């Protein structure tokens, strides 16, 4: 049997799988540190012994020390042998200790915990028709998803993405009616409602626990220009001046039918915003390390969610610009423009 010329060596394979083992183990320890409050207790950046951290976080000292050494081995925490003390560097705090940081990742890693908790069910779906509905997952998926996307809504959506629309944000500032499809726990909807008090926002999702949480978040925020409805995307009733799909159109069974329905619910001059996970233009280019978490989420969450719904297109979150452009072309709309991108997202505008 001949090997392709770019086949990895045995050493490369061993090192690659060992790195994946190290990464998965470190993710478990990061989630533990996040839950135990270790990162927030060390966020001041001053040296702490394991005893001081255990006191601050009310945890067992011996286990706390083992956690600190794991994190030091992972190069996330520094250790001073002369004082037996550990320091959380500022850059690590920005990623793992501060939920308000644009670089916050600790909360999003909870979605990986859900992948493992749901793995048997995912494999069962793989061996049958592939259907595994969003609402069947462990609640950590909903918490993790919210935290994966929230930093982008807090720091990108209003500041950088919406100004790239052909109308900019003038219509939102003046006052329009906006639908946020597949809104999940509602952070995108709340971010918009807070930024544009003259506009009215309705978040739609078919997952009751997420809608319940979104309503609770809105009440806590004291926002009166936002509401949430338990409604499937193909059943919303307009007219809407702006319809948004934030990280959800690819999860739907019939994205073409839903795009067509959305187009029909637009007011005159209405438009659609689609935010999708980043993907490279071609499948081959997309086979790189940074795409592996996106494919894993797609495999166990996005594709099976779509396969559980009528249409069962199973687009996946890595279909990229060509995949999403094809959806809108099939729905009868060719005016589809990429207006922004970050390392994690691509933003499109669709206009009839
Ligand atoms: C990956 S989550 C994204 C949630 C939210 N937009 C965000 O950015 O955090 C996908 C969401 O789409 C919702 N969803 C999937 N299919 C749907 C459908 N046909 N109609 C309405 N919502 C749907 C799911 O319930 C889930 O809340």
Task: Give short descriptive properties of this protein.
352 residues, alpha/beta, Arc Repressor Mutant, subunit A, Rossmann fold, 7-stranded mixed beta sheet, two-stranded antiparallel ribbon, 15% strand, globular, binds S-adenosylmethionine
Walk me through this protein's architecture.
The chain has 352 residues and is an alpha/beta fold. The chain folds into two domains: 10-96, Arc Repressor Mutant, subunit A; 110-350, 3-Layer(aba) Sandwich (Rossmann fold), CATH 3.40.50. The protein is built from 14 helices and nine strands. Helix 10 links the parallel strand 3 and strand 4 (200-205). Helix 3 crosses helix 4 (61-73), helix 7 (119-126) crosses helix 13 (292-307) and helix 8 (140-161) packs parallel to helix 10. The N and C termini lie far apart (53 Å). The mean pLDDT is 97. The structure holds S-adenosylmethionine. S-adenosylmethionine is lined by residues 134, 145-146, 149, 182-184, 188, 204-207, 210, 232-233, 246-248, 251-252, 305, 309. S-adenosylmethionine binds at residues 134, 145-146, 149, 182-184, 188, 204-207, 210, 232-233, 246-248, 251-252, 305, 309.
